[in-house]
Design a protein that fits this description.
There is one protein chain. The protein has 384 residues and is α/β, with parallel strands linked by helices. It folds into 2 domains: 114 residues, Aspartate Aminotransferase, domain 1 (Alpha-Beta Complex); 224 residues, Aspartate Aminotransferase, domain 2, CATH 3.40.640.10. 38% of the residues lie in helices and 14% in strands. The protein is built from 14 helices and 12 strands. The strands form 3 sheets. It has a 7-stranded mixed beta sheet, sandwiched between helices. The protein has a 3-stranded antiparallel beta sheet with strand order 9-12-11. The protein is globular. Bound molecules: 4'-deoxy-4'-aminopyridoxal-5'-phosphate and glutamine. Glutamine binds next to loops.
Amino acid sequence: MHLPSKHSATGTTIFTVMSALAQQYNAINLSQGFPDYPLDEKLADLLHEAALKGFNQYAPMAGLPLLRQSVADDLTKRYGIAINADEEITITPGATYAIYTAFTTILQPGDEVIILEPAYDSYIPNIEMNGAIVIPVALSSPDFSVDWNKVRDAVTAKTKAIIINTPHNPTGAIWQQEDWDALADIVRDKDIYILSDEVYEQLVYDGQKHCSVLNHPELRSRSFALFSFGKVFHNTGWKIGYCVAPPALTAAFRCIHQFISFTVNTPGQYALAHYIANNDAPPLHQMMQHKRDMFLNLLRDTPFTIFKPASGSYFQTVSYGNISDMPDMEFAQWLTKEYGVATIPISAFYSNKKDDRLIRFCFAKKEDTLTEAVKRLSRLSVTR
Ligand code: PMP
Ligand code: GLN
């Protein structure tokens, strides 16, 4: 029997590989992006309450109305935009699923999709699983900004979509309003959809603001904005997220969603709905900026080169170029085995496995974890 190959990615995802290696060598896991500190007890209590109160059967296909309304009110409060909870928000089992579903909603075999690399590793397989063709455009080093001429040159009559990600995984770069305006200039008068992966929207540092596609009326009318509660409420394992899109796009999205997962676990939705409606926790970016600053200050005593502090996200990308000339995958494995700290090699985010001797650290960890990790890393020395 012959199993068809649905996409070009071979093997297991880098996040699974590095987390398994971390476990095998009892290393500190700064690879896969998940917190090692607990979620807010109030949220855990609400999950318990949901199960006890009988919220244990299928939720409506689009998501619990209370959660959709809480999300709409929250987005209105934070971005000053009006959102129709019934017609524009769909709750999904995480953002990875929402991205796949949005692609499946719009793509036909032979369509082209532009991605900006380094890019989150699910984009390419998701595009290919729909029979579409990936057109990679490289971000500019060392600040990972977008070269708009390159994007313009990549557009053809077959371009069906562009997927963008801000704050960016793995580089921590963020988009400014000018980036959205430049994208609008390129897609104007063309039938090109935007997928805007904004899972780290609440993690933006140094007083900067997250620029959401939802704040760009011209682009919003052709966009799927994809979000995840996992990174925002420290519960990545709950796998709940949502898609915001104009009514016609939302209707088409739900047409697909209803036949893939149909709905999302009800007690989690109940807990999140009540939690968001009454959320009085300090803004998440304060706590995460503190972690980033602490981590960077410690890291300055190691031979890693920090080109730029992450403006957002969970991640700091650094160069190990003056420590070793090993390829990045080999270096990440060596660091895990020999120094007890697991990271992610950046070549995993490139279709051509481009290797600039960069690795990614996740700093969404307890202070003790970060301190111990850097203590181990400070044994490294400059060798080149
Ligand atoms: N997009 C990016 C850029 C991510 O880093 C992640 C991981 N959180 C996702 C999408 C997927 O989010 P989820 O865990 O909700 O599927
Ligand atoms: N988004 C997380 C990261 O970039 C990992 C999610 C996953 O393991 N697929 O590390």
